[in-house]
Amino acid sequence: MTIETTSRPTGGVTYQSVDEAYFEQRQLKRHAGLFTLWMMGVGAVVAGEYSGWNIGLSQGGFGGMLLGALIIGFMYVCLCSSISEMSAALPHTGGAYSFARTALGPWGGFTTGLAENIEFVLAPGANMFFMASYLAAIFGTPDSWLPLWWVAGYMVMLGLSVRGLELSMRVVVWITVAAVLVLLFFFVVALPHVDFVRHALNIGTDGKLVADGAGPWLPFGLTGVMLSLPFGVYMFLAVEQLPLTAEEAKNPTRDMPRALILSILTLIALALGVLFFSASIPPGAHAMGSSGEPLLDGFRTIFGDGWAKLLAGVAVLGLAASFFAGSFASGRNIYSLSRAGYLPTVLSVTNPRTKTPNIALATGAGFALIVLLAIWFLGGKDNVAFMAGFLVSMIVFAGMVSYILQSIAFLRLRRLYPDIARPFRSPFGAFGAYATIGICILTLGYQFFDPLYRWAAIAAAAWYLIGLGYFGFYRRHRLVLSPEEEFAVSGGTCGRPLGEH
């Protein structure tokens, strides 16, 4: 396989020769339309409305969490607009790695892809952790059994993937629809129980419960707003994974931007509803700030223990939707990096019948389980709430790094490739990219101000540095001219996605 290259620097990388059989063993199948992509975007995140976000109430109170969610929501609108422009112009399955590879070279591509890899491996792991907490509460199993729920969940996911990603995506779509309906049902039945002043404003400046409510909107001031930002991120985090399905979309240049914008607007509406109704009914914001299953606690208030467990069983669907969608995104990220040689190429071989990257999916699942078990045995089994916050903080760290690099890639793509076709253009332009970078840097900085979760960010950074070392000393001499690489090396003259006509 040969192409004519431009004089652009290659960043000190070497490409190995492969034949057509290499790519024949690594094909995906196009089958996803607009509705499927929209629901995949929502499904990737909807678990964040069920668990994890609520820890932000303990960091900033209701007002701090509300402002944090609005700031982060605006950032995601800007980010999704930038990604929409890039995904329509570069419809490869590599997603963020593809954008950065074209704009920032091989080192920039891998640096961005690795950040997404950490995020997408851990995000479904965190969803599995929260789902196990719900299942343990429903079935009355002790916390010591949580690792068994994790293993069972990943086995179900891998079993489903063997049947093919087309079927898997259909399952995720309908589970996502059910998960959204559960949230809307919660909003309706919670309405008669709302007492905003008494329950949402029941956190004092000392962090203790204000029994009769009427506490301050910002009990911890602007510092509380900043500390709540990472947990606001969790209400939207992973929607940006959607471009990883580009080579499975029927019309990615048209449908991907629409699906991304529809997804983030849907998630913002759900996030604000979840925040308001969960905090405004008993037991209130103070208790919700440390809950492992906030939606279940809300249903307990409304229906009592028995019915709450039944409804929580339905609520598990939301966590399952994000778990499956996130696991598949993790597989696609590993698949694209492997196909281009940044990771061992064997990981990108797909099933010859279903065209499913099963090896990549299993690899992502294995890494997630290793991290879950490591955190569990290093202290999580004695403090489940701490483990939840630790996972969220690791994911947010990787996500912020990825968003900064994608925004830089957006700015450089506009400058380096002004003439490539852009079926969609971000209405926020350069301002949206700069706003995203600023908010991400702010969020990253305040992660290190939180003594409880500082080590989570350090752990994610260590993973990041190990991955960069692996690339620098070994993999950069074994790259492959995949469609993303070919597009970048040829200056955009070659390298359309496989199967695109």
Please tell me what the overall shape is: globular
- Domains (count): 1
Task: State the end-to-end distance.
Answer: 20 Å
Count of beta strands? 0
Membrane topology: Multi-pass membrane protein
InterPro entries: AA-permease/SLC12A_dom, APC_superfamily
Pfam families: AA_permease (PF00324)
Protein name: Amino acid permease
Task: Provide the fold topology.
Layout: H1 20-24, H2 34-43, H3 55-89, H4 96-139, H5 146-162, H6 165-190, H7 196-200, H8 221-233, H9 252-280, H10 285-288, H11 294-339, H12 358-377, H13 384-416, H14 429-447, H15 454-473, H16 483-489
Name some characteristics of this structure:
501 residues; AA-permease/SLC12A_dom; APC_superfamily; membrane; transmembrane helix; mainly alpha; disordered N terminus; Amino acid/polyamine transporter I
Structural account:
The protein is an all-alpha fold and 501 residues long. The chain has one domain (20-489): Amino acid/polyamine transporter I. The protein has helices at 20-24, 34-43, 55-89, 96-139, 146-162, 165-190, 196-200, 221-233, 252-280, 285-288, 294-339, 358-377, 384-416, 429-447, 454-473, 483-489. The longest helix is centred in the middle third of the chain and has 46 residues, at 294-339. The protein starts with 19 loop residues before the first helix and ends in a 12-residue tail after the last helix. Mean pLDDT is 86; it is low at 1-9 and 497-501.
